[in-house]
Design goal:
This protein is 33% helix and 20% strand. By secondary structure, it is of the alpha/beta class. The strands form two sheets. Strands 5-6-7-8-10-9 form a six-stranded mixed β-sheet, with helices on one face. Strands 1-11-2-3-4 form a five-stranded mixed β-sheet, with helices on one face. Helix 1 runs parallel beside helix 2.
Length: 295
């Protein structure tokens, strides 16, 4: 005799939800005792402001929610991703938000808020961004549907309308905090467009200090960056627009800092003579950075 659950939902839906339970199983089995505390690294960056202020820089939370509204291929992809050691991303996201709220500072999230595109992921991420006042740019995982759709421009274009109301920088926008223009832009596929370059020039005209906010680190020679995981590497696919943009940003004296993610490990190095680049560690590992901007 079928259970009431199977009678109502049918065998196919029952199997789909059983698959969801399998995705969640690794989290239930984790033997953290206790779960490591949020690791907040504190750094100070001179940016030319009269009144110092701080932000909490987080990146790569890779939240992984899925429900019966998504297809079988997304379920299979979610199940494969659940084994990648990222089960605590949503937990640490909550911890980071609580930390920032207690300090009275803004959270800036530099991409890969979610691990893959699902209805549940988008809804949850958008709600957190909106209700907690997070400034979030997009990462490459904001455009991943499954293992076969990682960096496909046509799929990205189809996904953008689902993100643009809450994520900043789709493709580019400016958020003003503490007398500083935070220029948030989409370099999730390691490239930028002419529209982004034009928006940057409009921000420069305002004459305020600028912090660049993106997911993929902007390429800098001799600091040990991986060329395959950087934006603006010369010689890649003849992408003259991106290379010219990164060098233009490097020359601009108003640009005082670049914050990014993607590498899953903290990095800090000189981007130019007048700007530091700071790459956040992975939030799913409990890592984040409190950045104080000073005179």
């Amino acid at each position: 005799m079928k259970s009431d659950f199977q009678t109502v939902f049918g065998r196919r839906e029952f199997l789909r939800l059983a698959s969801l339970a399998a995705c969640a199983a690794p989290l239930r089995g984790f033997a953290y005792d206790p779960i490591p505390a949020l690791n907040v690294r504190k750094v100070s960056v001179s940016i030319g402001v009269d009144e110092p202020f701080s932000i909490l820089h987080v990146s790569d939370s890779h939240i992984a929610r899925i429900d019966s509204r998504d297809g079988e291929s997304t379920y299979a992809f979610a199940k494969s991703r659940s084994r990648n050691g990222r089960e605590l991303g949503e937990y640490y996201l909550g911890e980071a938000i609580h930390y920032a709220r207690a300090k009275g500072i803004k959270v800036i999230h530099t991409g890969d808020f979610m691990d893959f595109v699902s209805v549940a992921n988008i809804e949850h991420a958008a709600r957190r961004i909106r209700t907690d006042g997070i400034v979030a740019c997009v990462g490459n995982h904001e455009y991943w549907l499954d293992a076969g759709k990682k960096e496909i421009e046509s799929y990205k274009e189809a996904t953008i309308p689902k993100l643009k109301d809450e994520w900043k920088g789709v493709p580019a926008s400016t958020v003003r905090l503490g007398g500083v223009n935070f220029f948030v832009f989409d370099d999730s596929f390691r490239a930028v467009t002419e529209a982004i370059a034009a928006a940057f020039e409009e921000t420069v005209k305002e004459g305020l200090p600028i912090v660049m906010v993106c997911h993929v680190p902007l390429w800098t020679e001799d600091v040990g960056l991986n060329k395959g995981a950087s934006c603006g590497v010369h010689g890649r696919k003849d992408d003259a627009v991106t290379c010219e943009f990164v060098e233009r940003v490097r020359r601009e004296p108003l640009v005082r800092a670049v914050i990014a993610g993607h590498l899953h490990g903290f990095r800090q190095f000189a981007f130019s003579d007048h700007a530091q680049e700071l790459v956040a560690g992975a939030l799913f590992n409990g890592d984040c950075t409190e950045i104080e901007f000073t005179k």
